[in-house]
Amino acid sequence: MGPATDPVISDSALPSSADVVVIGGGIIGTSAAFDLARRGVRVVLCEKGQIAGEQSSRNWGWVRKQGRDSRELPLIVESLRLWQGMNEAVGADTGFRTTGILYALSSDADIARWEAWLERVRPYQLDSRLVSGDELTRLMPGATRGFKAGLFTASDGRAEPQQAAPAIARAAQRAGATVLTGCAVRGLETTGGRVSGVVTERGHIACNGVVLATGAWSRLFCKDHDIRLPQLRVRSSVLRTGPVEGGPEAAAWLPDVAYRKRLDGGYTVAGAVASVADILPDSFVFFREFLPALRQNWRKMPLRFGRRFFEELSWAGPTPLDQASRYERVRVLDPAPQQQVNAGALAALATVYPVFAKAKVAQQWAGLIDVTPDVVPVISPVERLPGLVVATGFSGHGFGIGPGAGRLAADLVTGAPPVVDPHPFRLTRFSDGSEIRIEAGI
After folding, report:
1. For residue 308, which of 288, 330, 351, 279 has the smallest C-alpha distance?
2. What's the Cα-to-Cα distance from 106 to each of 54, 138, 251, rounded to whole Å?
3. Its family (predicted)?
């Protein structure tokens, strides 16, 4: 099972109506609900399982501008601003700390790649920079392996995935939102060609707008409503250790391992390349869109064929709204971790930091990451179904950008001026003839 999340007590009554229904209780959905509630919008958040039960509690916990696609930078800058005031805003500790993030670089090619990235993002005036020598040593206390240089962003930070979305959900409730857990949304209702309500397992909620923030489930939900959303799932494995004395403070990516210190004194550890792409029916449906990513990353992301292909094949058709849906049959996606990959990551960490040689593995888990062909999220109204806003496809980068993404989704569903230009995140970029572009170095 995944890591234990902080509890959120579900509201008991199902409202008959709302202005907006948010589907999905991860970091994006809870952030959208919180923002909407603070605006005075009547909002209901429906989560089929528990708040942050899937990838929002299973990620690395990084909150970073560093290394992002330039199309995401305005949104992550806004998100960092929100994170910096998040603990006060929600009246709880989300675990956010500004500790910096480091990429340790071992070759001239690595250095050149990130020099090119720094040049590309220069207009955004980030504090990211290359470091070396004594400064790099100070960022890696106790390291016995040297590196040529590092890319470091001091204003980046970390938060606790098991605490953050639950804290935001509880704050949304206090602001007036209704939060329903164990309440799957089976589908949408429409009137005159636009969204007019949702059908949940507990009944109907009339509404004017819907934010779909269901992570790895979003493609399936869209498919049920004849909306083409190019999205696949990637499985990523993670472990956490018990407390480790004398370890580094800044989160870091090394050639073989990535780590992040936790508030409990342990570390979240993963292989620097720890993802597996399962071959699914949608792998063939979206082969053309994902071909550029496959060409660029085939050495880094092994492909696997197994029982998940047949599981998802059985989900091919929608279920009538008056019957129990697949969202009720599978409340939480809980894939098995790749324990061999995790063990290799911890061993690699111990070769750099001897203090980890005796670290105890407290837990291991895996999560399913929702990915798009260009590794940039979709945060977009759906042109063919007015009233629906999709916020998904964060491609492993969603936790840090979550508060900003939730705010943008709230802007779009209410018609408010968007906090950033939403054009790069439009769904129609996959159907309007735009080139599918993956930025070099990302």
Report:
1. 279
2. 34, 17, 17
3. Belongs to the DadA oxidoreductase family.
Mean confidence (pLDDT) of the chain:
93
Tell whether the model's pLDDT for residue 340 goes beyond 70.
Answer: yes
Please count the structural domains in the chain.
Answer: 1
* pLDDT greater than 90 at residue 422: yes
pLDDT digits (tens, 9 = 90+) for 224-271: 999 999 999 889 999 999 999 999 999 999 999 999 999 999 999 999
332 lies in some domain: yes
The predicted-structure confidence for 372-397, as pLDDT tens digits, reads as follows 999 999 999 999 999 999 999 999 89
Roughly what angle, to the nearest 10 degrees, separates helices 161-174 and 398-414?
30
What is the Cα–Cα distance from 183 to 202, expressed in whole angstroms?
A: 7
Cα(76)–Cα(124) distance, integer angstroms: 11
178: CB partners within 8 A, 6+ apart: 11, 13, 15, 18, 43, 44, 45
The CA-based dihedral angle spanning residues 180, 182, 187, 193, taken in that order and rounded to the nearest 10 degrees? 0
- Whether 33 and 22 have beta carbons less than 8 Å apart is answered as yes
Q: Is residue 265 part of a domain?
A: yes
Query: Do the beta carbons of residue 178 and residue 44 sit within 8 Å?
Result: yes
217, 231 in Cβ contact below 8 A?
A: no
Structure tokens at 28: 């994006």
* Domain that residue 353 falls in: 20-430
Q: 30, 392, 332: which is closest to 182 by C-alpha?
A: 332
Cα distances from 359 to residues 193, 224, 340, in angstroms, run: 57, 46, 16
Q: What angle do CA 308, 227, 223 make, to 5 degrees?
A: 25
- How big is the chain, counted in residues? 442
Pick from 317, 319, 316: nearest CA to 187: 319
Classify residue 13: in a domain, yes or no. Answer: no
Q: What type of residue is 329?
A: R
| Domain-embedded: residue 11 | no
CATH code assigned at 165: 3.50.50.60
Mean pLDDT across 392-408: 96
Condensed to tens digits (0 to 9), the pLDDT of residues 97-141 reads: 999 999 999 999 999 999 999 999 999 999 999 999 999 999 999
Check whether 215 has a pLDDT greater than 60: yes
Q: What angle do CA 249, 253, 257 make, to 5 degrees?
A: 105
- pLDDT, position 429: 96
This prediction's pTM: 0.95
Are 111 and 130 in contact, with CB atoms under 8 Å apart? yes
Q: 253 by DSSP, 3-state: which? A: strand
Q: Are 37 and 211 in contact (CB under 8 A)?
A: no
Q: Which of 42-56, 317-331, 371-385 has the lowest mean pLDDT?
A: 317-331
